Give the backbone structure.
Amino acid sequence: MQSRKVPSPGATVALPREGAATQGGLAAVLKGLLITARPKQWTKNFVIFLALIFSINLYWTALDFGNLVRLLTDTVLAFVVFCVLSSGVYFINDLVDIEKDRQHPRKRQRPLASGALSPAYAAIAAVALPLVSIPVAFWLNWGFGLIAAAYFVLMLAYSFVLKHLVIIDVFSLAGGFVLRAVAGAIVIGVPISPWLYICTVLGALFLGFNKRRHELVLLENGATNHRKTLEEYTPQLLDEMISVITPSTVIAYSLYTFSAENLPKNHSMMLTIPFVLYGVFRYLYLVHTKNQGGSPEEVLIRDIPIILDILLWLGSALAILLIFRGQ
């Protein structure tokens, strides 16, 4: 059997001949569309549930079962809306970056970059998904609709402009996480502590700068062919940024557990700090020793220690909020 030669990171992958992307029929097109929608990255939208979880002791105890179901239903619908909307953004991003993705050792396997999916089908999805999800967001809640529209505009700006600006590129992605957290609060009509927004943006910056570091190390000399801003970064600079963001994230979360008004006054939420510390240290371990920082969503669904840590953090936080509700 003849072996297949894998192109180097700096090589340009040849396009398949005309019509090759649709030869597999409807099933192949649907598969390409699903992969390009990036369902693995829908895990980012779980940030929307933070407002529901951390308002439990303020609101859930005063509401009947019917209202609890309504709150959960609205949050789930908000999660679905953001999954559809973010998938539309991924289609746009892949269409814009189709040539650059062909320079990446992993992204060249994406349906658009590899030629497995026709750009025409991707363009239809890129238009249809936002046109469906944003009106549904306004129907669900007017304020939530405005946040969803703001998220879409921010991600459009990122795809065409902001991702080419050093440091601003990572801050733009962090802004997307903050908008998700805000959306989760607005859709159920509850306030959440400003500390939680701060923790969200710092956590997103932590993931973003680690991702840039992974890309820079992985692609080496071909890094700037894939992402122009990577020529502005160095591993040393990114390590310095990460060394600032990492303690800031831990300190912000620690202050949140002590000072947020919606948490138990006995400061029992501080018992969850070790889980946050372990999660941060485990992720740094994966980045520096396992070279896995390029896809945070894959780490989230594949690394068993990270998964268990998140479950323990959520379980302990919910237990504390329920046990000490009203205190």
User: Anything to note?
Assistant: Residues 194-327 form one domain. The chain is about 70% helix and 0% strand. The CA atoms of residues 209 and 241 lie 7 Å apart.
